[in-house]
Amino acid sequence: MPHKSAPRGGGWMRLGGLLRKEFLQIARDPSSIAIAFVLPVVLLLLFGYGVSLDARHVPIAFVADAPGVQTASLLGAMRHSPYLKPEVMADMAGARTALLARRVAGIVHLPGDFGTRLLQRRQAPIQLLVNGVDANQARLVEGYVTGTWQTWLAARTAASGQALQPPVTLVPRIWFNSELRSRNYLVPGLIAVIMTLIGALLTALVMAREWERGTLEALLITPVTVREILLGKLLPYFVLGMGGMALSVAMAVWLFQVPLRGSLWVLFIVSALFLFAALGMGLLISVLTRNQFVAGLVAIITTFLPAFILSGFIFDIGSMPAPLQWLTYLIAARYFVTLLQTLFLAGDIWAVIIPNALALLLMACLFIGLSRRYIHKRLD
């Protein structure tokens, strides 16, 4: 019999049928809905409220060998600080015991001649002991105590009619995050990590599930092309992933009060590029593994963990060893974290947006292209 060509428009009809089938499967499978909408809410609430680089109301021991007006004044300044919570202790022995038991993070010790030296305008040293087990908190406590001390000294000098004239005057001006809220920095990066996990998991389980159920074998013997199979798998989960992205952005802006200074259409474009890269990565994993459990495990190990550790979300890339810094260029989340933090806090900075968006476009083409190469219309 002579070969009959496919009717015009048959490709679009087949693709429409695949999309309808995939959307029906999503509606009947609560796991996909949970991954796209429940997972980002849970992770944002957990990390958004639980992870913070700010140290407030840090307990410290306050020991004055000879309590007086000057020591009381300094104690009052520390109590008014939102970062310190001083606890008055009678002697250094009790303060050291509290420090060793980690009930306090540091000790401020004023020697017996502190008030006398201060009144005589002589040097009046203050001893500060800090628990260095947590190096980051130790640096914060040291900075908070130093800042409180300098503020109190400046106010005391001004009240006495004297002029405090240090050799250098620092006038700080903080751009993009003037409140110094770590949440403004962490939440956009957290969205990138969450979308990495969502995008990879959504498609990592798709093809593997089809192979396990045997439905892909029936699909391969139909006139459907590999390109149509790819589009039929990617587009529904792209819509689902963008819905999860919209939910995450809404929570960031309205729940966590993170400013969004960039354009929404730029945010949509870069999010779409990143989501295609994450979906392509998950699809490639599912094509190679053909097992849901293995696909999910590989997706978490190869996407979520690198995105969490090597994207600059928490750990500064510049402080990493050189080999790890080179490795971060292979992590799509690195570029998306930079884009989100820029769009949320700084705005449309094209010198940052364009190169990072091009990197995401390249990665999306690479992963989807590799998935296309390893999907064959045969059953081996």
Descriptive account of the structure:
32% of the residues are buried. α3 (69-80) crosses α6 (135-159), α7 (182-204) packs across α11 (264-289) and α7 (182-204) runs antiparallel to α12. This protein has helices spanning 10-28, 30-50, 69-80, 92-100, 114-119, 135-159, 182-204, 206-213, 215-220, 226-255, 264-289, 292-310, 322-328, 332-346, 350-374; strands spanning 58-64, 84-88, 106-110, 127-130. The chain is elongated and about 95 Å long. A four-stranded mixed β-sheet has the order 2-1-3-4, sandwiched between helices. It has 380 residues and is mostly helical. The chain folds into two domains: 18-51 and 181-374, no CATH class; 58-159, abc type-2 transporter like fold, CATH 3.40.1710. Helices cover 66% and strands 6% of the residues. The longest helix has 30 residues, at 226-255.
- What profile does the largest beta sheet have? 4 strands, mixed
Total domain modules: 2
**How many angstroms does the end-to-end distance come to?**
29 Å
Supply the number of helical segments.
15
Helix content: 55-70%
What is the string of SSEs from the N terminus onward?
HHEHEHEHEHHHHHHHHHH
Q: Radius of gyration, Cα only, in angstroms?
A: 29 Å
Low-confidence stretches: 1-8
The overall average pLDDT, rounded, is 84
Look at the helices and sheets and give the structural class. Answer: mainly alpha
Strand order of the largest sheet: 2-1-3-4
β-strand percent reads: 5-15%
Counted beta strands: 4
- What does the overall shape look like? elongated
Question: Oligomerization state of this entry?
Answer: single chain
